[in-house]
Amino acid sequence: MTHSGFTLIEIIVTLTVAAILSVILVQFMGTSISRSVEPTLSLQEGMTLQGIFENMNADYKRLLLVDSTPLATFKSRVESGYYGTYTVSQSEYIEFDTSQSEVACTSSPSECRVLKVAISLGDHSLVELFTR
């Protein structure tokens, strides 16, 4: 008598191997899929920060033409979040000493000519100098 088909042992072994491989695949793909959005979010944060600085530059150029104290007005706008959602890391008047090192401006704000602005969003940060 010839029997065709699989024995019960062969079916159990096949199902066990398939289950083990499925668990391995789910573990591997689960972390890959859940973390695949991180580069996209990072790029989005960086581009948002760049856009904020573009808006700052455009507004500062306009302030230079229409405001009697453009640097002071601009500084207050940066610190108040006028240009969007960001964290101000630094917004200080600076100058450069004789060795070209950056130092805090000790003159009155109306006499300081350079404003250093550093803002951050997420893991990204940008620094820019604004002068009059």
UniProtKB/TrEMBL annotation:
| Residues spanning the membrane | 6-26
The UniProt entry, under SUPFAM superfamilies, shows: Pili subunits
- One of the Pfam families matching this protein, by short name: N_methyl
InterPro entries per record: N_methyl_site (IPR012902), Pilin-like (IPR045584)
Ordered alphabetically, the record's keywords are: Membrane, Transmembrane, Transmembrane helix
The name on file for this protein is: Prepilin-type N-terminal cleavage/methylation domain-containing protein
Source species:
Desulfosarcina ovata subsp. sediminis
